[in-house]
Design brief:
By secondary structure, the protein is of the alpha+beta class. It is built from 3 helices and 8 strands, in the order αββββαββββα.
């Protein structure tokens, strides 16, 4: 029984670990840091998005500011693109709670068929300072295995 409890406790600690690739303090007299996370798109695994956001350790709510940069980091295939939502709204690929007050950072993937590009939009679900903060990054399909598939999908 002790081994089982120890294993469960150890498992919970691992789940709580962050996948941060960078963390920069905003100063000696503040509890806020800029955190940079790497997230691989779960359906288009050849794309990695780096998202930076503010983490405020002693606040109930983190600021809404964020930035995103997505790049091709592996193969992007026609099979991957065939599985994504290609509607104008796209689909949510990452979410992260930013407060106990229902604020969430979301990243949505939208397929731009005309330009054969994946668009990644990061945004906050709660208005802050009169604005819904957001950031945008794109990944071109040019020179990928998915390029010919994207060209074949063109409406003639």
């Amino acid at each position: 029984m002790k081994k089982l409890l120890f294993s469960l406790a150890a498992g919970l600690l691992i789940i709580g670990c962050s996948d941060d690739v960078g963390k920069v303090s905003l100063g000696l007299f503040t509890t806020k840091d800029v955190v940079i996370e790497a997230n691989v798109d779960p359906k288009v695994t050849g794309v990695t998005c780096h998202i930076s956001h503010i983490e405020a350790d002693l606040d109930f709510s983190d600021p809404s500011d964020m930035s995103i940069a997505c790049r091709q980091s592996g193969e992007i295939t026609a099979g991957q693109l065939a599985k994504i939502d290609r509607s104008k709204n796209g689909e949510i690929v990452f979410t992260q709670s930013k407060s106990v007050l229902f604020k969430t950072l979301k990243v949505r993937r939208i397929y731009d068929a005309e330009n054969k590009t994946l668009i990644y939009l990061s945004y906050s679900t709660k208005e802050s300072s009169g604005s819904h903060h957001h950031s945008l990054s794109t990944v071109s399909l040019y020179n990928t295995k998915a390029w010919d598939w994207a060209r074949s999908q063109e409406v003639k």
